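Ticket #4471: structure export looks truncated?
Reporter: QA, pipeline team
Priority: medium

Steps to reproduce: submit the single chain below to the structure queue and open the exported record.
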Amino acid sequence: MEGESSTSLDALYDILREKKIMRVEDIAAHFNVSKELVMEWGKILEAGELATINNPRIGKPTIKIAGYSGEESKQEQKKELSEADKIKKELENKENLAGMNKIVKNRNQGKINEAKKIISESRKRGYDNEFIKNMFSEKGWPPKLIEELLS
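Actual output as written to the record:
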């Protein structure tokens, strides 16, 4: 039954092998057929011991692949939850990084404003641009930024 399914019943079996369990109404919607027809398909699969029908008093009827206990679903849920946790953590990290970038930007802007004041005061005292440039270079300021500040 690998590859293309020759009948809707084959297709249903292929889907059940992949998903393990499905609600009858979801199968009916997928194949655009009645729930009654899906139940008939389920009975055929059940007769061949390929699937079982669960028709609870409360809740919706389901068809599950034979031998499926539900454990895989719990593992998949844990996997999905851990994926959701990873995404949440990644989002939190990005938000934290954005916050840190904003703090650094504000701090840097404060330093630039302070440097502009120092440059202005130094010029008032008669220091030339070369002296001011050397003063900032000794403090580790990037040469390109010093040039921008002096212009």
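Status: closed, not a bug. The export was complete when the record was re-opened. Leaving a note from the reviewer for reference: Residues 8-65 form a domain with the Arc Repressor Mutant, subunit A fold (CATH 1.10.10.10).
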